[in-house]
Amino acid sequence: MPISQNKQYIVRDGSPVLIPTNALASIKSNILSTKSKFQIILEPFLWKKRSSSDVSDHSQESVGGFFQRYFGKEVVDYLIDPFVEGTSTGDPEYLSMCYSFPDLWNLEERFGSFIAGAIQSKLSSRKEKSGEKKGSLKKQSINVVHFLSRVECRHLLIH
């Protein structure tokens, strides 16, 4: 049976392994060890919001370093590395997290956990959509804050 072009595989222990496409498939898959799966599941409960002095320390952190700090080397080797190399043809150890994934970097900065931050942001955006018109002042202010965060990130990397 030929490998489908619509599905993506990585090689693990000499055999092709299908890259999971959703959370349930990730849990059932043998692409990661049980330890790594628990690190992903428990991420929102294990991390606390960084202080402002910590933000400057991590502003030059690589994509690989960021995800390894959260989930370990196995997740970087078998999920992050193939994804980053496949989408940007770059090495995650040399790409800046701040520039490559600014939304995740900002979620971690705001909430301490980018998974919990993504969930909270999604819930709050649903509330905003149901209670506010498009193009509202609140939405515009969020875009300004996002822009300023990117400028701050660039400033920290330059200095």
Automatic annotation (TrEMBL):
Transmembrane regions listed in the UniProt entry: none
Domain Amine oxidase: residue ranges: 19-116
Domain of life (superkingdom): Eukaryota
PANTHER family listed in its UniProt record: PROTOPORPHYRINOGEN OXIDASE, PROTOPORPHYRINOGEN OXIDASE 2, CHLOROPLASTIC_MITOCHONDRIAL
Name assigned to this protein: Protoporphyrinogen oxidase 2-like isoform X1
Gene (UniProt): LOC107434045
